[in-house]
Amino acid sequence: MTDYTQLPFNLPVPQDDGASSHLLEKSLPDVILLSTSGKPVDLSYIQGQAVFFCYPMTGQPGVELPNGWDSIPGARGCTPQSCSFRDRYRELQTLDTQVYGISTQKSSTQLEAVERLHIPYELLSDADFELTTSLQLPTFELENLRYIKRLTLIVRGSKIVKVFYPIFPPERNIVDVVEWLKQNKSRLQEFPYQKRSRFEQLQFR
Q1: pLDDT tens for residues 100-151?
Q2: How high is the pLDDT of residue 129?
Q3: Which CATH class is domain 32-186?
Q4: What do you get for the CA distance between the two ends of the chain, in Å?
């Protein structure tokens, strides 16, 4: 059984291909994603400050990774990255920062990872590629399946204010995120009230 918490040696290092350069200062779209909490999350309604780390796919014990997965720069390492955000989750809370993980896996698969890895934050499923398409997130394909490349967005008042891409090694990302949040903490201001979410609008009709 493969231990996905450990990374193989000599993994290829991803290079910056410019595929995320358009994301800075963009607003999160009016997209609703299913959360592992069982509730829908309207991304355009996110309040305050949040970190969204997008990852290709969390491996499952007993399930083989796609053939050639480790040869794709940046593909391997979703479990170590997820666990690193888990381990410093309380610190992120002290920085008034919400945390969400996003992949194109089904919510049921994400829920298995949440329970097995004891993840305290929500994972969001973009299985229909609504967010990926709307923001034109960088992706790659393998065995006729499409995955989000690993990148992390820091959002304030639903606007993207920082993009980490490429990310390597994956477990280092949390260090860079926390460092950036602390360095930019003095810039925090009251965020403007966001519109009522599309989900709430439907409820009140």
Answers
A1: 999 999 999 999 999 999 999 999 999 999 999 999 999 999 999 999 999 9
A2: 98
A3: alpha beta
A4: 51
List, as one string, the DSSP characters of 95-161: TTEEEEEEESS-HHHHHHHHHHHT--SEEEE-TT-HHHHHHT--EEEETTEEEEPPEEEEEETTEEE
Sheet containing 32-35: order of strands:
40-42, 32-35, 122-125, 97-103, 49-54, 151-156, 159-164
Residue that is written with structure tokens 């949440």 in the block: 114
Determine phi and psi for 142, rounding to 5 degrees. -150, 130
The length of the chain, given as a count of residues = 205
Which amino acid is present at 64? E
For the chain, helix (H) and strand (E) counts, in that order, are: 6, 9
